[in-house]
UniProtKB/TrEMBL annotation:
The active site is at E62 (proton donor). This is tRNA-specific adenosine deaminase. Binds 1 zinc ion per subunit. It comes from Geodermatophilus sabuli. It comes from the Bacteria. Pfam families: dCMP_cyt_deam_1. Its cofactor is Zn(2+). Belongs to the cytidine and deoxycytidylate deaminase family. Homodimer.
Amino acid sequence: MTPGLDAALLDGAMGRALELAAAAVEWGDTPIGAVVLGADGAVLAEAANEREKRGDPTAHAEVLALRAAARVHGDGWRLTGTTLVVSLEPCTMCAGASVLARVGHVVYGADDPKAGAAGSLWDVVRDRRLNHRPQVTSGIRAEESATLLRAFFRRQRGL
């Protein structure tokens, strides 16, 4: 666990990420939400997927939340000491962005065996060849996230 961030705080942040994820369905995006916490546990930024809404392939919840957090964190683009809480395991782009932003801790809900880059398919965040490796915690409210995603994709496929 990240110093200063207890299980209840992370559970609450994941709850907010899941609320954001559910909202993304309203505009047709895959339900993924992200929250960036400061070292003190305060919310710096939050976002939901907006790829469909913006017509932007990089508008993943994590990237949008990291961009917004960088604007308020106070150390430019360096998000040292922050925690990224996301409902689904980050993809390679989002895992890479977390590493490059110097995020201290990545917390995610459901594993993504098809595109996950925090241990499932790849492990970008803990790659020893990189100069920064965030701590990773997985499985926080994983079933809630997985249920939300399964329901979304069932509707998308007309099942």
